[in-house]
TrEMBL record:
Signal peptide segment: none
Protein name: NACHT domain-containing protein
InterPro entries noted in UniProt: Lcl_C, NACHT_NTPase, P-loop_NTPase
Source organism per UniProt: candidate division KSB3 bacterium
Residue ranges occupied by any NACHT domain in the UniProt entry: 156-286
Pfam families, per the entry: Lcl_C, NACHT
Length: 724
């Protein structure tokens, strides 16, 4: 009875769907018959084989349903998202200092030090590979602006390109930290799940197995050795990616081996299409991207640090360093950090050759680290240059776990003759054919054959030597060329004749200083300067003695006496009108309108002023920041005195003899004929001396050319005021 009743109920229920064809009968009778007949045939067949089919499928269906329920519950209640974001923070919270020879005292918090980079839309082929190039582009913004715009575009990535050390990897780490900490709201962005992967670690897997991004992320974060406590639930990354909830950060396309790079780029393109609602950001150096670009990407170029960004970084860096080392965060630590930062910034301002390096965040980090570790920047700049070159040539790559066939020493051995040859010919660039001829024998000595491959890899990995234009190569900065030439001189002995020729030519003076800073005894070089006996040679000898490792004490004393005995200029302080016919005689100039004699200055900076103990004059360290007409120059002086600038109200325009006392016989590292203790913006300065028989012109000194000139009153010149 019970079994019969159950079958009757099932039969009756199975006929319920026939009400649909019945309702359809009046409008479409043929369709209703076909629909009813098909349904009855299905019921008839199921009645014979349905039980057997269900029994066969039942285990698989039940298992699949159980797995789905289990995974959903685990994903919903495991707390994995919270654990995952913690591990992202653990991975990327420290600012990288690996690869630096001078050790950092502790790892700093990236969020405390980071300064937003400026990015600008660009074309991949136009992105600079020079880590020291000062550059600006229209439309520059922070990455947050470009991410906001990306929300309205599907299946489009951001490709962030820039030279070595410009901060690409650090930027991706900061993005990961920001989203992991749910701090993206300040930038009006949604709460993406950050997935940061370093492509060099996964290139072989991508090439050999071509997993989906979800599978790759799942395998990476499920690695028990790397993440023993993370244990991501199955399909968690797949669900996030399919739902468009992820910010995918792929770092270092250029660090992928060339044989694998094309496969990796194609794989990235496929993932961008597969997960169109996610945001993708990829970084690379220019060369590594130009040859294998993404199909759908907006190219953004990383711009070098401005002076404001560099200062902000230094202040952030010192504050974070002092808080970490003292475990104290109060106004006193803030004060101490500001003092240390001020000291470093001031040292950089008085060493323009170092200040130029601050456009690159990596090099600026190295400078700050050395300053903090030593308590000062090395007086002998050569130590800093040596560390920078070694980091660029080897340590940085090895710190990333990238194998290199050549050591830094081997690369130096190949670069030394290049630097020497370019200095000897007073060149900044060389055609590839000449470079190849220079490098080929030295490259073979270190086991390499192909010069172009060596140059390309050197450019991509360090940016030390660059293809400035098609087929034309040069060092990223003259400083590197000069340092490597000096280091080459140190490796082999240089005869006295080489020094005599170089002492007479200011093109070589920086090399001579850097050489003296490395050689065991600089006495022979200084003795050559003294033998020549000119004011320029003696002053160069004084500069060399300041940077040299060792100098014979008696020789040092003799040099000091010789410098003190140099004739002083007659420093007239009263304004005078001087004719164009007599100015050479009155101002004591040679035929090139340069001084016949130079003063050995004894500068001492005191805040915003510089005291020259050799003349007793007090100068503005900077001066006017803009070019001024002669009338505006008078107003500028009046304005200083009105506010008692520097604590004095007797500032005036200097006379030509006074301005000439500032001239050096050779260019300094700033490129000007003036000591770098002064601000380098004041290229041409007005004097109080006017041109006789002219109602509208005055004399001035050109610090970029090293001599005297005159200019009409309406011309623009700078002002550097003086007081006696």
């Amino acid at each position: 009875m019970g079994e019969t009743f159950k079958k009757s109920v099932l039969l009756l229920c199975s006929q319920i769907p026939l009400f649909a064809p019945a309702l359809l009968w009046r409008q479409q009778p043929l369709a209703a018959v076909i629909l009813a007949g098909s349904y009855e045939l299905l019921i008839f067949v199921w009645g014979f084989v349905g039980r057997d089919v269900w029994e066969a499928l039942k285990p698989d269906v039940v298992k699949a349903l159980t797995d789905w329920i289990k995974t959903s519950i685990l994903n919903a209640f495991s707390g994995f998202r919270k654990r995952y974001k913690k591990h992202v923070t653990y991975d990327h919270r420290g600012i990288g200092t690996r690869g630096l020879r001078t050790p950092a005292r502790a790892q700093l918090a990236l969020t405390k030090v980071f300064v937003d980079l400026q990015l600008a839309p660009s074309h991949a082929s136009q992105v600079s590979s020079n880590p020291l190039e000062a550059k600006s582009l229209p439309g520059s913004q922070t990455v947050w602006t470009f991410l906001q715009r990306l929300k309205s575009q599907k299946a489009v990535a951001l490709a962030i390109l820039g030279p070595p050390g410009c901060g690409k990897s650090t930027l991706l780490k900061y993005l990961a930290l920001t989203f992991a900490g749910n701090k993206q709201r300040r930038y009006h962005l949604r709460a993406f799940v950050p997935i940061l992967l370093f492509l060099r670690e996964h290139a072989r897997t991508i090439h050999d197995e071509s997993p989906t991004l979800a599978e790759l992320a799942q395998a990476h974060f499920a690695n028990p050795k790397r993440y023993p406590e993370l244990e991501p639930p199955a399909t968690w990354f797949q669900k996030q990616l399919r739902a468009g909830r992820c910010l995918v950060l792929l770092d270092g396309l250029d660090e992928v081996a060339e044989t694998l790079r094309n496969s990796v780029v194609k794989w990235v393109d496929r993932q961008i299409v597969a997960y169109p609602n996610c945001c993708f950001v990829l970084t690379a150096r220019p060369k590594g991207y130009v040859e294998t670009p993404l199909n759908r990407a907006q190219v953004l170029e990383v711009l070098p640090f401005s002076s404001e960004q560099a200062e902000r970084f230094v202040r952030n860096w010192y504050l974070a360093t002092m808080i970490l080392s003292s475990d104290i965060d109060d106004p006193g630590i803030q004060r101490d950090a500001d003092l240390e930062a001020d000291d470093l910034l001031e040292r950089l301002r008085t060493q323009p050759a170092l200040e130029k390096l601050t456009v690159n965040p990596l090099l600026l980090t190295m400078i700050a680290n050395v300053h903090n570790y030593r308590g000062a920047l090395p007086k002998r700049r050569v130590e800093l240059y040596a560390e920078i070159c070694d980091v660029l040539l080897e340590h940085w790559q090895s710190a990333k776990g990238i194998d290199d066939e050549l050591s830094a020493a081997q690369k130096r051995a190949v670069l030394y003759p290049v630097a020497e040859s370019m200095m000897a010919r007073q060149l900044r660039t060389l055609p590839f054919e000449e470079l190849q001829a220079l490098m080929d024998p030295h490259l073979k000595r270190v086991g390499q054959e192909k010069v172009l491959d060596f140059l390309t890899k050197l450019q991509d990995e360090s940016g030390l030597l660059l293809e400035q234009e098609s087929g034309v190569w040069g060092f990223a900065h003259l400083t590197f060329q000069e340092y490597l030439c000096a280091a080459s001189w140190k490796e082999r002995s240089s005869d006295e004749q080489d020094w005599r020729a170089a002492i007479h030519d200011d093109w070589w003076h920086e090399v001579l200083r850097l050489y003296a800073a490395q050689v065991a005894d600089a006495s022979p070089l200084i003795r050559t300067c003294m033998d020549l006996g000119t004011a320029g040679a003696l002053k160069l000898g004084g500069n060399i003695a300041e940077e040299a490792l060792t100098v014979d004490p008696d020789l040092r004393e003799a040099l000091k006496r010789a410098l003190e005995e140099l004739p002083d200029l007659h420093l007239r302080s009263a304004a005078q009108s001087v004719s164009t016919e007599e100015f050479e005689r009155i101002f004591e100039l040679d035929s090139a309108w340069r001084p016949l004699a130079y003063i050995h200055n004894q500068y001492e900076r005191q805040g915003d002023v510089v005291l020259d103990r050799a003349t007793g004059l007090i100068w503005q360290q900077s001066g006017s920041s803009e070019r001024l007409s002669y009338a505006q120059a008078a107003d500028y002086v009046e304005g200083l005195n009105a506010v008692n600038w520097g604590g004095f109200a007797d500032w005036r325009l200097p006379t030509i003899p006074e301005l000439l006392s500032l001239l050096d016989p050779e260019r300094s590292s700033s490129g000007l004929y003036i000591d770098p203790i002064f601000d380098v913006r004041q290229l041409w300065c007005w004097s109080a001396d006017r041109v006789a028989a002219s109602s509208g012109s005055a004399w001035g000194v050109n610090f970029s050319g090293g001599g005297v000139h005159w200019g009409y009153f309406q011309y623009g010149g700078y002002v550097r005021c003086v007081r006696s």
